[in-house]
């Protein structure tokens, strides 16, 4: 879609879900499954139909600028490069992309090739997120990953050679049998490669996953606490700033797409099970592949779980999503959006956690203290009615 002269434009984000993988990892509860070329092609055509059938008026399209596109999964790097190119090209025909739009693809080592990476670059993808999780072979085997640390290094180097200057690496801590020193080794090993961004998440054993039915020797609460604090300290020493509970970046390389989620920017989720927030409505696409393949050309038929957010719900989301960021939530922005002060709505909660040194008030912002981050889920629940 061509750029038009229009001052009244608003940002919009896109998420595209690719629900395929080589095999499920032992911790994974994402909507994904193995699939061969015929299933992938059928899904691609359904996805293109959904993109072409989006019920947006010409005025809506003209007044929006795509500031970020995130292609996630599953393993989006599993299909051929042309698969991804066709999706991005279709989106660029349907929407106006900002010249500096951040376009990310998730990729797993062991599925990347030079040809795929070149294909990604041709269609404008400028950020790649590599799922390492651990550089240690034993930990990779425990997690059920399909790759080795050598596979990761080859993928990382290939991405650099193909011109990717914005790379994220995913790491996971509090793994079965992992020690604090072992986690520190993983951090240093990764940081020495100098990716622009590192995401570091603690393992969560989800119901329905293989891990949930296994007896796991997990680190204790004190060890997990130490691992989290070591993450901040070690990555800081390598030039990474923590800008969100689980994310660290070098200057200028925070993930704009994820920041949009935490700041409640409108986004459209495309593909099987993808979630959206648009004009203060939340909804998700069907999780049934059969239904998606049949009805994707009529997006209204595949959208489920519609919730029209009340003003109170919008306020709640502003708080519990915005507080995930280390910068916190701004009082002035809250008032500009809702016409009421943060103190008026949440004064008692804010003051309670300020007294206990879990929240701090600084220059018009409320944010977690280091102490507060470790009990953030408990505190964030207090902003919900």
What is the gist of this entry?
The protein has 385 residues and is α/β, with parallel strands linked by helices.
Report what the structure shows.
With 385 residues, this protein is α/β, with parallel strands linked by helices. It folds into two domains: 10-262, Alpha-Beta Barrel (TIM Barrel), CATH 3.20.20; 311-381, Arc Repressor Mutant, subunit A (Orthogonal Bundle), CATH 1.10.10.10. The chain has helices at 37-52, 58-62, 81-94, 114-122, 137-143, 149-161, 180-191, 221-237, 256-262, 289-295, 299-302, 311-322, 331-338, 342-355, 370-373, 376-381, and strands at 10-18, 64-73, 97-107, 127-133, 167-173, 197-202, 241-244, 247-249, 267-270, 275-278, 281-285, 303-308, 329-330, 359-362, 365-368. The strands form three sheets. Strands 7-8-6-5-4-3-2-1-9 form a nine-stranded mixed β-sheet, with helices on both faces. The longest helix has 17 residues, at 221-237. It is globular, with a radius of gyration of 21 Å. The N and C termini lie far apart (43 Å). 36% of the residues are buried.
List strands and helices in order, with pairings.
Layout: E1 10-18, H1 37-52, H2 58-62, E2 64-73, H3 81-94, E3 97-107, H4 114-122, E4 127-133, H5 137-143, H6 149-161, E5 167-173, H7 180-191, E6 197-202, H8 221-237, E7 241-244, E8 247-249, H9 256-262, E9 267-270, E10 275-278, E11 281-285, H10 289-295, H11 299-302, E12 303-308, H12 311-322, E13 329-330, H13 331-338, H14 342-355, E14 359-362, E15 365-368, H15 370-373, H16 376-381
């Amino acid at each position: 879609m061509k750029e038009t002269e229009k001052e009244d434009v608003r940002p919009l984000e896109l998420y595209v879900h690719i629900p395929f993988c080589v095999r499920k990892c032992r911790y994974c509860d994402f909507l994904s499954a193995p699939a061969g070329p015929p299933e992938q092609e059928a899904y691609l055509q359904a996805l293109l139909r959904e993109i072409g059938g989006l019920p947006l008026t010409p005025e809506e399209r003209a007044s929006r600028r795509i500031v970020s596109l995130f292609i996630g999964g599953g393993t989006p790097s599993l299909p051929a490069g042309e698969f991804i190119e066709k999706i991005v090209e279709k989106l660029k025909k349907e929407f106006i992309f900002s010249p500096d739009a951040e376009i990310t693809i998730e990729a797993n080592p062991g599925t990347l090739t030079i040809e795929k990476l070149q294909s990604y670059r041709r269609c404008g993808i400028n950020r790649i997120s590599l799922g390492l999780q651990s550089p240690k072979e034993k930990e990779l085997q425990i997690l059920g990953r399909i790759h080795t640390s050598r596979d990761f290094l080859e993928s990382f180097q290939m991405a650099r050679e193909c011109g990717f200057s914005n790379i994220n690496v995913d790491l996971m801590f509090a793994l079965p049998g992992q020690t604090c020193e072992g986690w520190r080794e993983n951090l240093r090993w990764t940081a020495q490669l100098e990716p622009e961004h590192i995401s570091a998440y603690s393992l969560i054993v989800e119901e329905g996953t293989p891990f949930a039915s296994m007896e796991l020797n997990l680190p204790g609460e004190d060890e997990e606490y130490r691992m989290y604090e070591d993450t901040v300290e070690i990555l800081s020493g390598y030039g990474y700033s923590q800008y969100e509970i689980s994310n660290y970046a070098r200057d200028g390389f925070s993930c704009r797409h994820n920041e949009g989620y935490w700041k409640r920017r409108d986004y459209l989720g495309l593909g099987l099970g993808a979630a959206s927030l648009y004009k203060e409505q939340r909804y998700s696409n069907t999780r049934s592949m059969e239904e998606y393949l049949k009805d994707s050309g009529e997006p209204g038929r595949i959208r489920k779980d519609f919730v029209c957010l009340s003003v109170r719900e919008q306020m709640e989301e502003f708080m519990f999503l915005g507080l995930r960021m280390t910068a916190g939530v701004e009082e002035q922005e809250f008032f500009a959006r809702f016409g009421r002060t943060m103190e008026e709505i949440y004064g008692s909660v804010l003051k309670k956690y300020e007294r206990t040194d879990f929240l701090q008030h600084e220059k018009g912002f409320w944010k977690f203290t280091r102490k507060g981050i470790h009990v953030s889920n408990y505190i964030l629940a207090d902003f919900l009615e």
